[in-house]
Design a protein that fits this description.
429 residues; alpha+beta; OB fold (Dihydrolipoamide Acetyltransferase, E2P); Chloramphenicol Acetyltransferase; 11 helices; 19 strands
Amino acid sequence: MSSEVKVPTLGESVSEATIGQWLKQPGEAVAADEPIASLETDKVAIDVMAPQAGVMGQQLAKEGDTVVVGALIATIEDGSGTAAAPKAAASPAPAPSPAPSPAPAAASAPAQTAGQQAPASGSAPAQDDVGSGAAVLSPAVRRAVLEYGIDPSKVKGTGKDGRITKDDVLAAAQAKSAQAAPSVSAPAAPAPASTGERREERVRMTRLRQTVAKRLKSAQETAALLTTFNDVDMSAVIEARDRYKDSFQKKHGIKLGFMSFFSKASVLALKSIPAVNAQIDGDEIVYFDYVDISIAVSAPNGLVVPVVRNVDKLSFAGIEQAIAEYGKKAKDGTLTMEDMKGGTFTISNGGVFGGLMSTPIINPPQSAVLGLHRIEDRPVVRNGEIVIRPMMYIALSYDHRLIDGREAVTALKTIKEAIEDPTRLLIDL
């Protein structure tokens, strides 16, 4: 007797998804509630679980196919099946680079080599072995384990509660590659002569990238976008952070970063200028008495914007902890639909990538977005003298249909003043 595998409910207002990857192949043994496929939605990746133990039957959709909620995509047959053979690691399809992280970047190239040279038998785990640890392996980690032929039981996790992260898998793959390398280097083979051939490669856009493209283009076509700029002297915030960062981390277990300062400064601006925290809904304007800030973070498949809720009521530590948690979930590929839902304002920090200035695009239906950029020493005039100060350009893009220029400039000026004099954050000025 066979069981049907259907596309599960994906979340509010999400009706379809793309088959990102089949984690089980026909004929392979499947455990109950084991992930057998990964679906890509507009925002996150979701695993499809086996409804019963048995053997993977027919796959009714191919990787890359678009499927709707409730659609039949596979069957699970009765039987014991066979263990999955270790998969030879194919080079993963190019994806947008995540935020800079020296350790995994250094491990990336040798890790792929290790996966490609893994023998057909040995210590590489069968797919069943990976499935048995599905309770503690995120989708991103599970894919890395399968691609690089790593036994997760032999990897020491550095994540929360000892969980294995993608970086742990990449480091294990690098170590495996180093052990497999011969002790005596063989003479290098002559490089093949260049033929001058020019190549092209076509890669299917991920569903996330397709959605981002549509939303950003829609924002340009629908909203009357305008951007106002200012610059901020970061001296006071840098001094405050340097003075209190050790005691802050000791008390709260989290580092004190700049994002909590800008989040709190944004709350002051949004409370002072309610239109910046509002949205257009048809012929009506919706004003919010709370502040939910979408914080743009880098994920393996592109930029995502999880929502830190009730920022106006959170402490600095609460904001930093929420951002750190979302950053880790984005890196591990475990963000949920609920994490991405809502938001009344967005902060995007292009400075982590070295951006000096930009005109960010609003995240519909929101009406404004704050863009942060890199900090650099620049000459400025203070009290009639030219001095060097750590300066940052900030930008506020807004929907001119709802927000007037005076309101936008005032809001950005409020953020600037709060950052240059952090005492304002304490006395709500």
